[in-house]
Amino acid sequence: MASKRSLQCFMSRLCRGRRMFAAVPESSVASSSHKLINLEYEYSAHNYHPIPVVYSQAKGSSIWDPEGKRYLDFLSAYSAVNQGHCHPKIVKAIQEQVEKLTLSSRAFYNDKFPIFAERLTSMFGYDMVLPMNTGAEGVETALKLARKWGYKKKKIPKDEAIIISCCGCFHGRTLAVISMSCDNEATRDFGPLLPGHLKVDFGDAVALEKIFKEYGDRIAGFLFEPIQGEAGVIIPPDGYLKSVRELCWKYNILMIADEIQSGLARSGKLLACDWEEVRPDVVILGKALGGGVIPVSAVLADKDIMLCIQPGEHGSTFGGNPLASVVAVASLDAIREEKLAERSARLGEELRTQLIKVQNQYPDYIKEVRGRGLFNAVELNGKALFPVSAYDICLKLKERGILAKPTHDTIIRLTPPLSISLAELQEGSKALRDVLELDLPKMLKEKPHSVSSSSSHICDRCGRNLYGSVDKDL
Length: 474
Ligand SMILES: Cc1ncc(COP(=O)(O)O)c(C=O)c1O
Prior knowledge:
Keywords: Aminotransferase, Pyridoxal phosphate, Transferase. By secondary structure, the protein is α/β, with parallel strands linked by helices. The chain has 16 helices and 15 strands. The protein is globular, with a radius of gyration of 23 Å. Bound molecules: pyridoxal-5'-phosphate.
């Protein structure tokens, strides 16, 4: 029976052409990791496509697998580990708290959430916070808050509120949130999506004003990432954030910045909006607010907006729990005390200098190196590399001890913990150079030129190819 099941499992993996979860040849990973990957494949939903490496222990920027091999983390759990893995101050905070009190629910008060609330609001200069857990919940909260404000304050007619979001955005995976997504994989067969959403091109203030003019009376909020992360670290043109601020004031629309990935020092400033010294009406934080230890998210706004939500209208059992509260305070302390924003800005410059050197050596393969602080991407030239993808390059980086994850077919995001050292950064760019110099020629020869569906990247919503995927009719 067991052998029949493993055979079925093996066959189903072989047969699934697209996005294989656990394409792990026995020889590519040592035995304990191999067993764990297969166990996960067997018993967990196949909703991710991980690089085949098993995290077993971590400290700062270093990861060890169960066999004791060390890697350098160049993803930071999608920027949730800005402070570095197992940061001693954050670990100590949770260890001390876990013995005392873990959960009150907000049916009652606890002695840690008020401290966190005061701390977070004063650090970011807002009147109030609404605490949640995951990033997607934070975004949901901001959407609900904007709608409430729209009806109560802006007097939008009942059920007619509109939220504007950007093409290429990523705000999470819940139904309301994917209703704004341009990624077909995130939306197909999950319909019907939530109504009340319109899209605009990211970085285009003229298009934004056009849509504000046309639908302004019904628009409650404009939700955007100041730097689009999942889309491939897309930085808006200079002046865009300022224009957004002006337009939102002009048309009485809430400016809602999703800083879940770009915030908390990742981009070299505390918030990415700080690059243009712009203060949004609503800020959403998550990821590194929990220091890579537990999920903590938060929505920040002033009283005239936040108090539109009344008791009983929104909440979460775990939001504002004492463990999350002490972890968040320690995470914020670490960012401030260790000057992580400044560090990110400085090291980011250095990393881009190194990566541009690699680009100059391989201009045919690297289209662009871009980023702010330690929020960076290397965009590959999909045509020159075809059939090798960014994922294949990441597999080779992994073999060379560097853990990075592609976003879309041709972009590698490089977002190490902000505590990374200069020498470790150099290891990362050297590994990329070595992959292009030593591994790629072999990969190009060996990988079969199978045709995969470029049409899946044509946005269902607008019919454009947003992610510049490779034209496979080569
Ligand atoms: C900008 C942005 N918003 C929201 C989310 C969703 O966060 P979570 O995965 O914690 O729900 C993400 C996650 O990558 C993100 O990058």
